[in-house]
Amino acid sequence: MLHIVACIKQVPDTKVAKINPKTNTIDRASAPAILNPYDAHAVEEAVRLKKRYGGVVSVLTMGPPPAVKAIRKCIELGADEGYMISDRAFAGADTLATSYALAKALEQIAKQRPIDLIICGKMTIDGDTGQVGPGIARRLDIPPLTGVNKVVEINKEKGYAIVHRKLEDGYEVVKSTLPCLFTVEKEINDISFAPLPNMIKAARYYPTIWTANDLENVDRKQLGLKGSPTIVSKIWTPPKPKGGEMLEGTTEEKVEQLLSIVLEKKELFQS
Amino acid sequence: MNLADYQGIWVYIEVKDGKVAPVSLELLGAGRKLADKRGTELGGVLIGSGIKELAPTLFAYGADVVYVYDDPIFAHYRTEPYMRALLHCCQKYKPEVLLYGATPTGKDLASAIATDLPTGLTADTTILDIEEDTGLLLASRPAFGGNIMATILCKKYRPQMATVRPKVMKALPPDPTRTGRIVEERIELREEEMRTKVLEVVRQTVKKARIDEADIVVAGGKGMGSKEGFQLIHELADVLGAAVGASRDVVEAGWIDHHHQVGQTGVTVTPKIYFAIGISGAIQHIVGMQNSELIIAINKDPNAPIFQSCHYGIVGDALEIVPLLIKRFKEEIPKLKASADAKEEIRHA
Fold first, then answer.
1. What is the pLDDT of residues A198-209, one digit of tens each?
2. Segment A34-53 mean pLDDT
3. Which of B144-153, B226-235, B293-302 has the lowest mean pLDDT?
4. Is the minimum CB–CB distance between A236 and chain B shorter than 8 Å?
5. In sequence order, what DSSP letters do the residues of A211-253 get, joined into one string?
6. Out of B152, B309, B333, whose CB is closest to A241?
7. B303 is in an annotated binding site
8. What proportion of chain A, given as a percentage, has pLDDT over 70?
9. Considering CB atoms only, which of A134, A175, A237 is closest to B147?
10. Among A43, A149, B225, B287, which residue's CB has the most CB atoms within a 10 Å radius?
11. Does A143 touch chain B if contact means CB atoms closer than 8 Å?
12. Pick among 3.40.50.1220, 3.50.50.60, 3.90.150.10, 2.40.10.10: CATH of B216-348
């Protein structure tokens, strides 16, 4: 029986979010909160491995109370258990403080049921860093395998996993001891449609929620803003470049002007 | 932690197929400026197997000192042994700043080092500066969706670390007469203690011109209306012999594969001609194409920010303009080819 934990995050949907033209920042009210799309692939892969080898899939998130919705989404995808850490003490965490808090929660989960494998998405669409997954692995002192786009084999008895890691021009086949942590690429799987029983279970599901006090051996100095070495010193709008020359006239005239501009670089077209 | 103990600007040197990765040379160029401003040394950390002879290249591109960890255990990149070597180097020589390419390897290694040291790490930086007197690194990157930049600092921890996107910084012209100091280091690592093994490396050759190497890129966005409308981008690219690029939202809508995404979370491109068609021009896209030689934007919204970042712009409906462009290029490009062939014949006559 494998125990796989997927770490997930609820994020604003940057795809539909509108930009406030005055502040140039994202208008959060316009952005519905969704399960980070990369994390959906992490949960999907965990569920597929459960089907292949048998086991239990847990999901873990850190976030404010409404993030329960993202956990419910994971239950729809086939996860069995949900855990959430939620506390003002976690607020303002950068990637280092986030991996610390999640690692503490994972240690707590592992006390109830030892963990064989942790799967994270490649990155979040709001932070765009991809640093939390490997950070968790280092904190738990297990091998991080980033860029996984195929799981070849998990062998719990012999204690190893074999995966493909994506390279810029191909992939490498890597064998690692268990437990270990994968960060997975989107291409690793296609998200399955949630079967009805999962949806019914999800609608009524309530995860285990822990505050900072519920976690054991936590050094509060390492949590949230206090535990974050990086700070955002300023947000600024880059000076606008002076802009390009606009081509005028009828559509046909504009096309002809553009044609002559492009074809001026004739060496590009003569080979 | 006594911040004054930490000195020097360092670059983690990525090696691929026995060569220094281009991004590492770019970072030496950027690092040289920081080191000169701060009045300190520029170091490179070179980890690999049989890589010592690369050190002169690093001097030529601006390094003053190269720390070398040369051992068969480093034959393939793996987090564990590389991390042990780089941690050893950081703890022994205490750099003030450590930069990595924002490549799969650079990001993997930087994340591990940041956790173990611990220190702060800024991801996917596009602008770097340093305060002359305090040595504070100003690492700026496009922030979260909006058309804004965030400057990130790490005040209380050293080294200050950042990953930097490929093709954003510029390498210096190499000076083969430059020399520097080589510091050879060793750490005890036993293969049988390593928890990961690379069993095989499979190179996949990509059929089409790689988007980051193409001379012309035709990129489309949501303004193409639908996956079917986006076909026009492919057609125009075919006529021009160009690679196809895309904005983030059309990739997420599933109109085209992620390999084609240009921008902060996709590929950075610097072609001779870049077409941005139906792309509004969010900053996260702009950072991926702004260094192109000639940028042409087509968008029906006259206020689209893309027009601020292009050389020539056309306000109009892409679905109307692109078919006309395809038709006219189909007529004109063969004429150019014919005239080139004719000249060739005259020369040989």
1. 999 999 999 999
2. 97
3. B144-153
4. yes
5. -GGGSTT--GGGSTGGG-SEEEEEEEPPPPP---EEP-SSHHH
6. B309
7. no
8. 94
9. A237
10. A43
11. yes
12. 3.40.50.1220
